[in-house]
Design a protein that fits this description.
about 120 residues, mainly alpha, two-stranded parallel sheet, two-stranded antiparallel ribbon, flat
Length: about 120
């Protein structure tokens, strides 16, 4: 293969990678719009918001609130439920702040019930 052919193939390869990246971005954006419009149309649905970092679960991932479609902002204020996103769970586990991590370090199973406390209010 000549040098010119190699250059052409390199340019075509780079353009292909750029096109694939743009296509992935378009798919992600459409997934966010589909999830947001479904949430807006379904009166009983709730938007998941991470209580630690504030990101929203829209589409197939967690996104900053600034990336939510503008038409969804009012809905988010009324119908957001708090949870914790996978990234924050991982950070809490790694820092030892997670109850799941602490109980596994102490030899307890994460599904074990908490000990009974007879001094509880009825």
């Amino acid at each position: 293969m000549g040098r010119d052919q190699g250059d052409v193939l390199a340019v075509l390869g780079a353009r292909l990678q750029e096109a694939l990246a743009r296509a992935r971005e378009a798919v992600e954006e459409s997934q966010v719009l589909i999830a947001a419009s479904s949430l807006a149309r379904s009166p009983g649905s709730m938007a998941k918001r991470c209580a630690w970092c504030g990101r929203l679960e829209l589409g197939l991932g967690w996104r900053p609130p600034e990336q939510a479609p503008r038409f969804l902002v009012a809905t988010l204020e009324r119908r957001a439920t708090h949870t914790i996103c996978p990234d924050c769970v991982r950070r809490l586990e790694e820092s030892g702040q997670s109850a799941r991590r602490a109980s596994s370090v102490n030899g307890e199973q994460s599904g074990d019930p908490e000990p009974e406390d007879d001094d509880r209010e009825p």
